[in-house]
Design brief:
Structural class: alpha/beta
Largest sheet: 5 strands, mixed
Shape: elongated
Helix content: 25-40%
Distance between the termini: 43 Å
Number of strands: 12
Length: about 250
Amino acid sequence: MATASFRFYEELNDFLAPERRRREFSAPCARAATAKHMIEALGVPHTEVELILVNGESVGFERLLQDGDRVAVYPRFEALDITPLLRVRERPLRVTRFVADAHLGGLAHMLRMAGFDSLYRNDYRDREIADIAEREGRIILTRDRELLKYRGVTHGCYVHALKPAPQLRELAERLDLARSFKPFTLCLECNAPLHPVDKQRVRERLPPSVQANYQRFTACDSCGRVFWEGSHWRRMQALLSESVRAKSESSQSE
C-alpha cells in the first residue's frame, strides 16, 4: 500500500480532523487511488479545490498517487491568477446560477434579491440537486459536504456561515459576486424575471397605504406577485450595499 504526504491550505483545513489541520501529514492510499479519491477520503469535497500540486507539479483530479508523493491542495483563488498552472475543472461557468439545498432557503431568497438565478425547494433530494447542477450548469450551495462529493458534480460551495445575511456576504467574497449584482430583477418567491408594470394595472392588488404612497412597481408573470420600494426593499438594498462594501474593503486590504 502506498503512503503519501498531504498539506491542505487556507479554508480547506476546516474539513479536516483537528490533528491534521495546517500541517503536513501522511496517509495510506488505497490501491490505484487518484488525487480526487484521497482528497475526498480525507474529508474535503472536490468542489472546494482549485489547484493540486504533486511533488511540485500541477496535476488534475485523475492523477494516480504513488508511494512517497507529496500532495499540496489549495482552495479557490480570488486574487491570484493561476491560469498558467492548472485549474482542476475543465472550464468556468459562463453564467453564475445556483441550486441550494434544503437548509439554505434564506440564502436562495437573498441571491434572487441580488439578481442571481437560484433554484430552491425544501423537498429536493441530494441526488436531484446533483442532477440539476450537472444538467443546467448550476453551482450547488450546501452545508452538507457529502453532497459535494457526488459523481458528476463539478461546481459547488460548502457554505460556512449559519445565517442568510452572513452567507450572502461569504459568497459575495468567495465568488466575487458583487460586480454582477442586478438587484430586484428576479421574483423573490419563484425566481422568474420581474418587469416594470404600470400602477393602474395592479392598483386593485395593492393595499390602500401602498396605493397612496408608491408609484413604481414591478410584477412577476409567473406567480402574479407585485413588488414596490417599501421598507422591505430598503432593508434589502442596504444588505446588498453592505456586501459590495465588504468585498471592496477586502480587496483593498490584500
